[in-house]
Design brief:
This protein has 265 residues and is α+β, with helices and mostly antiparallel strands. The chain is built from eight helices and twelve strands.
Length: 265
């Protein structure tokens, strides 16, 4: 593992920095299906989609902070997300419960039966958006706007370090994707560079995360995963999301092959 001396973006200590990944490197190993065909993942960035084994990595965090992110969010979330070959632990867990509210397009589930995983999902979502903002100089091609979180980078640091509770102005929405399209999709964080509230989203296999920054109490903040009234997860057909339509447009421009091309026709 390559190290570089510098200031850890999270704990602010002057120490050895290790190579940190914007999206967990284990995703690449977990979701490749066995058999023939192109096993490279579809990456969706700000301007294009492409098949590649590229991983956004650079020296951002010290070993202790990297381990903190891994233990508090990455490890449990990667065990719960879609891992290929039909293995999707979180979707299977939801299937054992009845939704508390359901429409033709989506179903809401009480997050309480998930136990610690509910907070781990929230921590993971916030940590990805935070490192995307704090590490803009490490992977500049991942965003058009530097330091998107602005003052919220510092506000979130004690929470991510385990020294304070999550700020009430930060909320997380998690959607469990129905398998109406291939779930082997990574979409880098995206969102506006101004305004209040601001929604930042990213996709990993089987899950869509939305982190809302700023704003007062509204319907989303009351019923999302970190809701003040009830904590929920939503199961949804990804084709119902406008951002998925944008992703499809980029993927088509990337000349998709195989079953991905079939699904997007």
């Amino acid at each position: 593992m390559a190290f570089l001396n510098g200031i850890c973006a999270l704990c602010q200590a002057s120490t050895h920095l290790q190579s940190s990944h914007l999206l967990p490197k284990s995703l690449y190993r977990y979701i490749r299906a066995k058999g023939g065909g192109d096993k490279s993942l579809i990456h969706v960035g700000q301007h294009a989609a492409f098949r590649s084994d590229k991983q956004y990595a650079g020296h951002l965090l010290c070993t202790s902070c990297e381990q903190l992110f891994s233990t508090n969010g990455e490890e449990p979330v990667l065990s719960a997300c879609y891992r290929g070959q039909g293995f999707f632990a979180l979707a299977q867990a939801l299937a054992t419960h009845r939704p508390i509210c359901q429409t033709n397009d989506l179903a809401f589930y009480d997050a309480q039966p998930l136990g610690a995983l509910a907070e781990q999902l929230a921590y993971f979502g916030i940590s990805i958006i935070w490192r995307w903002s704090a590490g803009h100089h490490v992977w500049p091609e991942s965003t058009r706007y530097p330091r998107r979180l602005g003052k919220y980078e510092d506000l979130l640091r004690p929470y991510l370090l385990g020294q304070a509770s999550r700020p009430g102005s930060i909320n997380v929405w998690v959607e469990v994707l129905r398998p109406t399209v291939p779930l082997e999709l990574l979409a880098l964080p995206a969102g506006p560079d101004h305004g209040t509230p601001r929604d930042y989203e990213f996709w990993i296999p089987g899950l869509r995360f939305v982190v809302r920054v700023g704003g007062g109490a509204d319907e989303v903040s009351r019923v999302c995963l970190t809701g003040s009234t009830i904590q929920t997860l939503c199961q949804v057909d990804p084709r119902e999301r406008r951002s998925f339509a944008a992703i499809v447009g980029l993927v088509r421009g990337a000349d998709p092959k195989g079953r991905l091309a079939t699904a997007l026709r």
